[in-house]
């Protein structure tokens, strides 16, 4: 029996969210599914999780890159602190926009503690008046539908105290021309994270999002057209305009996601990880 709003209720309250250390080491032995885990922030997150002895399932579309990522993360786990249990790393090729494929992913994962979604589907670039109706609608709808598909597949297999972490970007509060469609999708994902945090709270599941700034990943390097021996120089020159004089590293960005996974009292938050980019 508990007291609520001036009246007595005999409704049995669900057990409270489990309490554990908010430090990353509490992720040891936990199962994390990383969607978009074959490169960039997702791959960096997998490496950090491996260093504390987590069980990891990497999901990506490209089977070759995925195999390479699994090998890289496995090696990272092998060189972790001796106090950490050996990490278990697996890979599964799948398209995050395919609902049936996501069902298969989470069926294979078994009991899941944490889900990190970093897979990027950037479309609908350009002035809205120059986009076709289908392109504009798909650019907004596809990322949101992908998140909903992942949540529908993951939640029935998640234990109390688990978390789902989504990804957004700093252009949501600081829009740029020609980006209305992808910014709308990112803004919708931030809103969805907060709504899901409320909806899933009775199951004692947490949902958050990370709003990333410009991070030095293969995706960013591709946008600058940097290749070959000049790639580091190009990125360094472009990053010099950032408040801290460089772009963030994938590992720095990934650490924000691990913080949200590990801290059992973080839910419904949109955490900005941009090195001050959104301030200037």
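Q: What amino acid sequence fits the structure above?
A:
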């Amino acid at each position: 029996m508990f007291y609520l709003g001036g009246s007595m209720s005999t409704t049995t309250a669900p057990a409270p969210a489990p309490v554990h250390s908010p430090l990353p080491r509490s992720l040891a032995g936990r199962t994390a599914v990383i969607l978009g885990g074959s490169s960039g922030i997702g791959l960096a997150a997998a490496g950090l999780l491996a260093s504390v002895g987590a069980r990891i399932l990497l999901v990506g579309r490209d089977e070759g890159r995925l195999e390479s990522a699994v090998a890289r993360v496995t090696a990272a786990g092998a060189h972790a602190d001796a106090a950490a249990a050996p990490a278990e790393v697996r890979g599964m090729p799948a398209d995050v926009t395919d609902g049936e494929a996501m069902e298969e992913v989470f069926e294979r994962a078994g009991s899941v503690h944490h889900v990190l979604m970093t897979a990027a589907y950037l479309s609908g670039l350009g002035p809205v008046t120059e986009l076709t109706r289908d392109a504009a609608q798909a650019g907004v709808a596809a990322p949101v539908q992908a998140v909903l598909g992942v949540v529908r597949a993951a939640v029935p297999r998640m234990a109390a105290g688990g978390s789902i972490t989504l990804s957004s970007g700093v252009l949501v509060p600081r829009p740029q021309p020609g980006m209305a469609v992808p910014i709308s999708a990112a803004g919708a994902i931030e809103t969805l994270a907060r709504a899901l945090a409320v909806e899933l709270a009775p199951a004692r599941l947490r949902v958050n999002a990370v709003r990333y700034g410009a991070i030095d990943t293969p995706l960013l390097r591709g946008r600058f057209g940097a290749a070959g021996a000049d790639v580091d120089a190009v990125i360094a020159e472009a990053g010099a305009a950032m408040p801290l004089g460089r772009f963030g590293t994938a590992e720095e960005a990934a650490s924000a996601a691990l913080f949200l996974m590990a801290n059992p009292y973080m839910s419904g938050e949109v955490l900005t990880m941009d090195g001050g980019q959104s301030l200037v």
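Q: And what stands out in the fold?
A: Confidence is low (pLDDT under 50) at residues 1-10.
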